[in-house]
Amino acid sequence: MTVMDLLKKIFLVEILKGMAVTLKQFFTPAVTRQYPKEKREPFIGSRGLHALVRDSNSGKEKCVGCGLCAAMCPSECIHIYTSEGDDNEKVVDRYEIDLLRCVFCGLCVEACPYAALVQTEHFEYSGYTRAEFYYTKDRLLENWDKYMAGDKGRKYIDLFWRPRSSDFEKKSKSEQDRSKA
Ligand code: SF4
Ligand code: SF4
Asked: Given a cut of 70, is residue 181 above it in pLDDT?
């Protein structure tokens, strides 16, 4: 041990340094937000409440009942019931999400090949019964109308829905460039 180390030990230098750091915190402004008085602005792309996308032409859900979202869901909280329609197309009779089991991972949204399911930025909801957190197809479509209607929904899909056909065009162009080189 050097003389300097010995002096540091005698005068408790390290402890005093630590206490100085603690003391400094008394005079720095708190970073904690006093929710709900202070709120951070929600931003598009937050993983909030789910919504089923409503087709602007037909007014119905875009979901075709393929079940990929349910297959990807690690919490197994998506339940889809389909039947066969008049012209042999699949009809989504029920589409339900049990939000109390959901971990808001977003895998269902990423898995959907039709951009038919999104997560809105709405996160402030509460309830007194389990039923209030059981989102049926109608309630999920209402969420779209409430939180994503108009340009907002289009912007969300433009920003986050991948892959798009344009991505493959770009990829094949870059592959062509590479093969020329
Ligand atoms: S966000 Fe995750 S846990 Fe919730 S429904 Fe989608 S896949 Fe399931
Ligand atoms: S993956 Fe998309 S289209 Fe398929 S069932 Fe889920 S929400 Fe509907």
From this structure: no
HEC readout, 25-86: HHCCCCCCCCCCCCCCCCCCCCCCCEEECECCCCCCECCCCCCHHHHHCCCCCEEEEEEECC
Nearest to 45 by CA among 108, 115, 122, 111: 122
- Residue nearest atom 2 of ligand 1, based on CA coordinates: 105
pTM of structure: 0.78
Cβ contacts of 121 within 8 Å, gap of 6 or more:
42, 43, 44, 45, 46, 48, 147
Q: Report the residue among 62, 64, 80, 93 best suited for mutation to probe ligand 2: largest number of ligand atoms under 8 A from its CB.
A: 64
Contact 115, 105 (CB under 8 A): no
Q: Which ligand is closest to the CA of 144, given by its number?
A: 2
pLDDT tens digits for 73-100? 999 999 999 999 888 888 999 999 999 9
Structural domains present in the chain: 1-31 (no CATH), 50-164 (3.30.70.3270)
